[in-house]
Amino acid sequence: MNFQLCILGCSSAVPTAERGLSAQWLEIHHKHYLLDCGEGTQIRIRQEGLPMQRLSVIFISHAHADHFLGLPGLLSTMDLLGRKKSLRIVCPESVKEFLVHYWNTVDYQPGYPIEIDVEAWKEGGLILEEDSVQVEAISLKHALPCRGFIFREQRDAFVLDKEKIKQYELSNTQLKELKQGNSVQLSNGTLLDANQVGSIGPAGRSYAYLTDTRPVLQTLLKIPAPNVLYHEATFTEKHKERAKKTQHSTASEAAEIAEKWGVSSLILGHFSVRYPNLEELLLEAQSLFKNTQIAYNGLRIEL
Ligand SMILES: [Zn+2]
Ligand SMILES: [Zn+2]
After folding, report:
1. The CATH number of the domain where 243 resides is what?
2. Helix 251-261 / helix 279-286 crossing angle, nearest 10 deg
């Protein structure tokens, strides 16, 4: 089953010729999700050949323009191209207000159902649970209230041995229980334990999207580390004071988070346009956390 990430944009505040504003596409078990939607995201989706109409949920981290201004255009393009499928948008209240105001101004609203879920964004915690994936929203530390999103692939705790389970007449409910590592009662009254018919399965893959934020290590240490972490690195240590003032992180700080949280790999993003050469940020991070790479438009990763 697939778990793919595609970076659509990773520039902070201002786009450059090479870098779009914040947006990422995630495909997990053939379900499609968008993380943030900076201006120009619909063009980037077209350039990458991604299936816009199959998008099911859009997650917006916070109400800074470089993370949501692409919504009006994207939402109406999907309508113009004949979308019927419903769409859920998890976003702050002010982003909902912006969309409603915009639709009133242009006296038009997309024809397909759109559920704008500000409650899930506000409450945080487990905000999406599907067969294939769970999404957790956590609080970040930024100039505005901001959410980070962690995607965890749902895998069965136990992989059952087909030959062994053949000898029992098990219902679908019983199979589901066993796959979760539980015991079930058979028709003759005896208990069948998951260990008798299976073994512990592989751990699910996971991905965390953390932008924009100061480092929030104490929050993260309470949560299992993901395989891959995208962490903003707007500045280098040379501009640390600026990072603190604008509530962003440096490349070193992102690397320290990766190291202490215990992730397998780190992707740096949300770069200030003041750095024409991102090598500087990469080297700074790699001196603390080797398995680091720089995000760029079109970077694709299979987790
Ligand atoms: Zn930003
Ligand atoms: Zn911001």
Report:
1. 3.60.15.10
2. 40
Tell me how far apart the alpha carbons of residues 23 and 191 are, in angstroms, rounded to a whole number.
50
Q: Return residues with CB closer than 5 A to ligand 2 (ion).
A: 64, 212
Among 66, 79, 107, 117, the active-site one is: 66
Tens digit of each residue's pLDDT (9 = 90 or more) over 236-252: 999 999 999 999 999 99
Contact 261, 255 (CB under 8 A): no
142 shares a domain with 231? yes
As beta bridge partners, residue 115 has 88
pLDDT tens digits for range 16-29 = 999 999 999 999 98
Known catalytic membership, residue 161: no
88 C-alpha vs ligand 2 centroid, how far in Å? 22
177 lies in the same domain as 229? no
Task: Specify whether the backbone of 270 is left (phi greater than 0), alpha (psi in -120 to 50) or beta.
Answer: left
Domain final residue pick, 139, 169, 199: 199
**Which stretches of the chain are DSSP H helices?**
41-48, 71-80, 93-106, 118-123, 162-166, 172-179, 194-197, 217-220, 240-245, 251-261, 279-286
**Together in a domain, 181 and 120:** no
Number of domains in the chain: 2
- Are residue 175 and residue 261 in the same domain, yes or no? no
